[in-house]
Amino acid sequence: MRTDVIKTYKDVHSWVGIIAGLALFIAFYAGAITMFEEPLNRWASAPTRIAPPVSLDRTPELVDTLLRTHPEARTAYTIHLATGPDMPARASWTTGTRRAPGPTWLAALAPDGSLQVVKQIPSPVAQFVDVLHQQVGLPFSHAVSMPIMGVISLLYAVAIISGVIVLLPSLAKDLFALRFGKNLKRMWLDVHNVLGLFSLPFHIIMALTAVIFAFHDQIYATQGAVQQIGTSQAERRESPPGGPKTPPSLEAVSGTLSPAELQRRLAQSMPGFQLRTISYEYNEKEGPHGHIAGIDPRYGARAPTYGMGEIDTRTGAISEADYLPGKQGPWFATVTSFFTLHFGSFGGAPVRWAYFFLGLAGAFLFYSGNLLWIESRRKRERKAGAIEQSRSTKVLGALTVGVPLGCIAGTSLTIAAAKWLPADLAELGAWHSRIYYVIFLGAVAWAFLRGAARSGTDLLWFAAAATAVIPLTTAVSVTVDAGGGYDGPSRLVDVVAAGGAFSLAMIARAAGRRARAGPRDSIWSTVRTVGA
């Protein structure tokens, strides 16, 4: 391939990476954390004090008492077949509307047979991290952030293509080359190339699916508008949004099968499907019906941790299987595959761990790309006779330090804060957002104030300390009983955080040595060149 063509693609790869790289770092780092969203939810949420769940055989007694005592639950209530610390009750229901849901209430039978109802208040911190991932760290509304994320994802795809083209001529020679030595730029380039090449299928999947997710609403809005053509206003008025204004009578919601019988029938029609929840619902148009959620390890799932379908709660027949694993048609199976590949919702724990490390490696890939650009710029400026780093190099250096380390520190501290913020605090999700962005913006400001070299070491130690706060918080909360139950999933959060804190501390030590002993004309050196 011609040298000028390679140079063009190299320039494209560099500039596209610089424009999109820092946002993609946030997306990949937060995305890696979402691989353990359920354990994080359990770690962050305070335990719910409620009587033990009744057996499935006694569930009809619980449901009958619930529906007589709380008529608002007749419209929709859920039976949980898999109970545990994160869902300790057999039955629950949510007040409010679909567009504006209210709190979730848990129902159980006390030892004396009376109904016990408790409000569940899960921590919103895991959802905040997920939104951070979806919106590449942008503090705007979802409607504004997602199209911007789509553009960044398109740039990401361009960076992938141009990077592969640049690497092709030296692929055989540099494939397994990791040249550690005094030439740090060469070392960073080798690491960058190896990570990029061996995780290429993963990055192609992420780029394509991210573009689809970014414009998901626009695609479905267009599809819906097309489907509405030819539909009269009278027909559209037949299905008003929301449920009935008044709760249905007990007679209207009667005649449904018990959860145990539905579980038995569904096990016959869907062997291998692990049923988690059955939602009993009612509206005037459809009458009694419901939804099921669960997982089948042999198939991918539409949501990160489950697939779903609609059933007739009077017969157990499946009435809609668009998102039900193993029962989908070709079109919906294809659509689900995009979600499955992006979420890693297949293959169980090994795939989730693989996605976790690939996410961290992806974040490092974007970080190392900026380092390479800065080092290349330094060499060009020195050849041109420049003594002091240019303003653009200093700005990019500060951003390369402040944005990633601000993201890491802010994410760690807002997760740790979940143990201490009152569960009934108004706008609890907004408080997590405020904590994150104060830390994030403070780190960026510190990077500009101190410069890349000095702030890099400072912020690495700060990020290490912030991440260490998570297991330290657990130690204190377990002692004073201020946090959630401590079990296997909760320990996983602490182990990962402790490993991250240790890794960041080791990197901070190396960065300090580099700042003191590295090339004086480098932006990462705290020793200034004479005459600078």
Global morphology: elongated
Number of strands: 8
Strand arrangement across the biggest beta sheet: 4-3-2-1-5-6-7-8
Radius of gyration: 27 Å
Percent helix: 55-70%
Distance between the ends: 41 Å
Tally of helical runs: 17
Structural class: alpha+beta
Structural account:
The protein is an alpha+beta fold and 532 residues long. The protein has an 8-stranded antiparallel beta sheet with strand order 4-3-2-1-5-6-7-8. 58% of the residues lie in helices and 10% in strands. The chain is built from 17 helices and 8 strands. Helix 1 packs parallel to helix 14 and helix 8 packs across helix 12.
Give a quick set of tags describing it.
single chain; 532 residues; alpha+beta; eight-stranded antiparallel beta sheet; 17 helices; 58% helix; elongated
List the SSEs and their pairings.
Elements: H1 3-34, H2 37-44, H3 59-69, E1 76-80, E2 91-96, E3 101-109, E4 115-120, H4 125-134, H5 142-167, H6 171-174, H7 184-198, H8 200-214, H9 216-228, H10 233-237, H11 259-269, E5 274-283, E6 287-295, E7 307-311, E8 318-320, H12 330-343, H13 349-383, H14 391-417, H15 428-450, H16 452-480, H17 488-517
Antiparallel strand pairs: 1-2, 1-5, 2-3, 3-4, 5-6, 6-7, 7-8
Helix pairs in contact: 1-4, 1-5, 1-13, 1-14, 2-4, 2-17, 5-8, 7-13, 8-12, 13-14, 14-15, 14-16, 15-16, 16-17
Brief write-up:
With 532 residues, this protein is α+β, with helices and mostly antiparallel strands. It has 17 helices and 8 strands. The model is unreliable at 226-244 (pLDDT under 50).
